[in-house]
């Protein structure tokens, strides 16, 4: 794709005007700029003006060897900096409802979709290989982001603006490929993860992934997965039985070890938030170490503030705020309810 294109309709080889506020985002007409400024239908640039990277100036699409094409940084990005905020082009749900949807799309948008990766060229396969979420959402730029188990970004769907954002999970240098993880690193064993990636996307992770192609990191990832599963199973047992003080100490130690794994692999904020919330619940169940529970919840909210937007994070942050009120004595909550809550959360993460 030409880096000089309209940010709304993706038209190329046209005269462009620049947003007068951020001086970065470009449009082929005032009409495209107006459509992009508000929701629905646009990026909601009114909110993201000057807050996110722009195609051509901050990142670009270019060849990525055997992987086809990829998204690459044109400048340095700091940890938690927003790389892109993008409206979806269309979704598989849209296509199922209206198979003739392509006839109503501008040529530039239709061409952007048809140029996405596919081994057979079939439209259905393009949604499978390039779509995000259960809806199979397609994006002109984000659908070019390749997989890495040790990805350098996280993404979230902002429901109220119907926009997807991608945020740097760690510092990214100019020239570095921007990657995301297509499958769960924490909750899926390496062999299962690699098998799913091969079957669904045709990805041979052992050849390209910074974890799977490195025997030392791959072994650590397997240890992380084992520690995650053992921690969740221990939480389930803790929530279902009357346990002693030593069991809480054991859980806190396991949680501390798991946090070190998270730090090593620079996981996105949501696992941290869930970890700290669950550890605080364990303290509340036994009504012990409440000062430690407060610290856990402060850390949970700190991570929530670093990356906001997705339903999962928003739900976990709301949960942390509720738990903090209980720890501070502002609300009453029966122990049985804590146990039920803990069991439900732990069970949801055991695949």
TrEMBL record:
- Domain MYND-type: from-to ranges: 6-49
One GO MF annotation is: zinc ion binding
Keywords assigned by UniProt? Metal-binding, Zinc, Zinc-finger
**Where does the SET domain start and stop, copy by copy?**
57-183
Cross-referenced CDD domains, in alphabetical order?
A: SET_SMYD
Q: What Pfam families has UniProt attached to this entry?
A: SET (PF00856), zf-MYND (PF01753)
Keyword Cell cycle found: no
Record-linked InterPro entries? SET_dom (IPR001214), SET_dom_sf (IPR046341), SET_domain_protein (IPR053185), Znf_MYND (IPR002893)
Question: What protein am I looking at?
Answer: SET domain-containing protein
Native organism? Chaetoceros debilis
